[in-house]
Amino acid sequence: MPHGRGRRSLRQSIDWPLVICYLLLVIIGWLNIYAASHASEAAGILDFATRSGKQFVWILSGVFLAIVILFVFNPRLWEVIAFPSYLIVFLLLVAVIFVGAEIKGSHSWFSLGPVSFQPAEVSKITTALLLSAIMSRQGFNLGNKKDLILAAAIVLVPMLTIVAEKETGSALVYVGFLFVFYREGLSGWFLVAAALAIAIFIITLTVSPFASLLMLLVVVSLCFSANTGNIKRWILRDLPLLVLLAFLPRIWAAAGGEEPSGLWARLQPSHVLLMLIAITTLWYSIRGYKAKSLPHWVAVFTLLAGMAMTYSTEFIFNDILQDHQRKRIEVLLGLMEDPSGVGYNVHQSMIAIGSGGFVGKGFLQGTQTTYGFVPEQSTDFIFCTVGEEWGFIGCLFVILIYAFMIARIILDAEECRDRFTRIYGYCVASIIFMHLFINVGMTIGLMPVIGIPLPLLSYGGSSLWAFTILIFIFLALYKDESKYF
Amino acid sequence: MISSRSIKLLAGLGVAVTVLVVRLFTIQIADDSYKKSAESQSMVYDVIYPTRGIIYDRNGKILVGNKTAYDILVTPREIKAFDTLQLAEALGVNPDFIREKMNEYSRNRKRIGYQSVVMMKKMSPEAYMKFAEVKYKFPGFKGQMRSIRDYPFNAGGNLLGYVSEVDADFIKAHAGEYKSGDYAGKTGIEAARERDLRGEKGYNIYLRDSHNQKQASYMNGEMDKEAVPGKDIVTTIDADLQQYGQALMNKKVGSLIAIEPSTGEILAMVSSPGIDVDVLADIGQHYADLVKDPYKPMFNRTVRASYPPGSVFKLVNGLIGLQEGVLHTSDKYPCSAGFPYAKGRKLGCHYHASPLNFFDAVATSCNGYFCYVFRNILDNKKYPSIQDSFDAWREYVGSFGFGHPLGSDFPAELGGNIPTSAYYNKLYGKKGWKFATIISLSIGQGEIGATPLQIANLCATVANRGHYFIPHIIKESAGIEIEDKYKEALYPAVDSLYFGYAVEGMYMAVNGGGSAGGTAFAAAVPGLDICGKTGTAQNPHGADNSVFMCFAPKDNPKIAVAAYIENAGFGATWACPIASLMVEKYLTGKIRPEREYVEQRILSSDLMSKVKVK
């Protein structure tokens, strides 16, 4: 145990490496905001009319906020106000749908004169606080159906409200709470199931329902075999058999077999797969019923759900997603080449980052970001400036700071014996991770264009303050550990 | 006490970060297509056009120079509301022109975007200054300076050639050398020495933003390239003589060429009607008219037209006959107003004393005499058949530079035509033709075609007593080399001795002194010792072509001239005085008072109307 018991000095009780990471990131952000906007504004970095000047004010006020959170408030306060603040923010989330100004198609901003404020930013904090408060209660157990539903509801309520605000990007961040649930005892199969659902969605759209079904069958049979300890048999028997049967019609055709006639003529590869799935499902059901074994039923459920998912993907894609979201996904998945339309952002962003090379073009020397080829370059696409001007080295540095920060928060959280602090720590780590992966992934074409900021780097007071509060509440809680243990 | 689940989560974090880093590595280091995209997108190469090389005449006078002109560029996106009438006045155009242009830009605004488009081309500096004074009132309009060709002498449109913007085919044919918007020499000297004249383009690299606005110099101009001006060219042309030749050939259809025999340098070269230099500067505007003109001013007759040379060709046949030993200068042949070559058929001749020796035959241009000469050549017992003797004759003729391009530095030069025995075999059958069949060749008629340049070269060859240098228009000068072939004398297969006889005949043709009168006395200028040979070539499309070639002085000749005037009539009437005026002008710098009436007659005559055009 790295930290001793009893009263510790300030030097020991505050996790300084995290504070340093925080400061490094805001300064990197500030410099890059200046770089991204200096050409169009042509003023000093501290000119308050410019974005970098404004960001400087946000940073100073953020640091002030951090000091207040660390040293003024009693950290126990956060647990106490968790529920009321969650409620208030929820009301704001709902209210903004009706009174919020429409900005870029979403109703998620309150405009109070010159200041705009997005309740969704704060909602991440209040959700994390309430989740930590509820889940840290004596006797709370995710294995318990009632508790699981309660925890899920705490996350889903703001998440769905934000979807209703048409801020799907911000809502996606809430998926990150799955990691918290996992840490607190939720079965790992939920993560696998979520990953499988995403995979089915993508494969169905990009390749074919056939490929999707094949993958489903392979994964389910593999997991089932792994669960029952029969991996060898799966590799030697099930997999080859599966693939052989799945491709039978094609092999038949390739081998120059006779043109099938009648019913056989209309037989498509996916029909064979569907029959295979039906047989497997039936077999698992009978075995599951006889042996009363859970894995069989899980397998059956997954197969049915996966099949439903495969055939409803087109429906979800075409009828549930909004136009711009559908286009962004189409561009990401390469279904639509459109470098000057929706794909423009990603295309330009990748050009900017890609042109940075190993060491970058140097501070203020980026041509793509400086001259306005990349849209939203000081907010959502701030990483482009890092990539272009500081190159691979700079990107690696920034990503490693985030990775270090996330890992450090997880390790700190693990160290805490207060469940509230630990769960809250995981929430913070998950949120930062989701933002990092989605935002950076978006700029380098790994994720669809989802408008969420890069924590602490992107321009904007709302976001900077939210992450400052999020992180420093954890630091305050962590510092407070010593008082109680 | 770290839970196994947190380790799995940390491992997951590691995997996710690795995915991001690998992806970054791919696009930033492994794949350089993004760098190229960034460059093409953010860098704008501002081309600096080099000034084109200047073309000088042999005495250092500028034939083709450069002058400044302005293009008016419009950036439609930057235009603010403006006073159309005031702009029209400043630009010197009709207000409707501006309205029409504005409508056009507005229709094409999507395609134009933030780019600039050219609204007007080649404004003179004077006209541009008027606009420049009020330019500030018209944002979005600007002038772009450029250098265009300037012609101080009205000398040789076809000779100098023109420069025009390259088109798609030209760019394709010269892969990698030109880009759209470049200019290149298309004809004449401009085309022949394009590589020297054009220079090398330079560029300034600027960074631009997403609105195509220039923002800054790239790397403080370290990567910029200066334009290399084109090399100057010194030509063999004598600007004054060229201009004089142009004046003499005004309103006449044909060619006039002057060569310095001792070097093969072309002193003047006129193809008439030609392209006026005023038109040359702005060829694009006049191109359609030039192409439609029935007199074909774009057609450089001097090196491309194939005419029957007429009587001047008698010299060639005479020289071949002397060389072959089937003719001796003292041989006399009778001429009874022609040569009877078949029953009741006669190749006619004018009336003169008869019989004549070689010198008198040349001087009086006796048709009958040269029919005997050509018959002797073809009936030479040395050769087993007429085919063999004809081929031998053809080889001689070829050695004079006929029947193939001479190899001048005119890229468009053609070679005329000398028929082959195979041609006649095909036409008449192997046994079907004899001397009488092709008797016209005796006097330079029939199937023979020669370019005026080849005729001038023949004249220079005789002047040199048996050798010539390939005629050319580019002089060697600093940085400009010419091919060695222009420095080597070429020898026709006839002894120098016989050329001396030909010179005597030509001298007598101009200055008299033989037993019969000369045909070219109109060319005589006291003290200049001009030697000449007239020709009157039949033209199936109307009156005869008037031909004359001469050189002077007789000893150590300085100039050889060939004049070929279409449908003008007797050689002695038109071509003869024109050529002799050229010689006189070149050698003495002026025209003697007693010959001024000749000059006036030539300058004021319109022989164009005699040319039938389709």
Task: Write structural notes for this entry.
The complex is a heterodimer of chains A (about 475) and B (about 625). Chain A is an all-alpha fold and about 475 residues long. Helix content of chain A is about 70%, strand content about 5%. Chain A has 20 helices and 3 strands. Chain A has helices at about 10-15, 15-40, 50-70, 75-100, 120-135, 145-165, 170-175, 175-185, 190-205, 210-230, 230-245, 250-255, 270-290, 295-320, 325-330, 345-355, 365-370, 380-415, 420-445, 460-485, and strands spanning about 100-105, 105-110, 115. In chain A, helix 3 (about 50-70) runs parallel beside helix 20 and helix 13 packs antiparallel against helix 14 (about 295-320). By secondary structure, chain B is an alpha+beta fold. Chain B folds into 2 domains: about 45-235, Penicillin-binding protein 2a (Domain 2), CATH 3.90.1310; about 240-285 and about 300-610, Beta-lactamase, CATH 3.40.710.10. In chain B, about 35% of the residues lie in helices and about 20% in strands. In chain B, strands 2, 3, 4, 5 and 10 form a 5-stranded mixed sheet that branches. The longest helix of chain B is centred in the N-terminal third of the chain and has 27 residues, at about 5-30. The termini of chain B are far apart. At the A-B interface, helix 8, helix 16, helix 17, helix 18 and helix 19 of A face helix 1 and helix 2 of B.
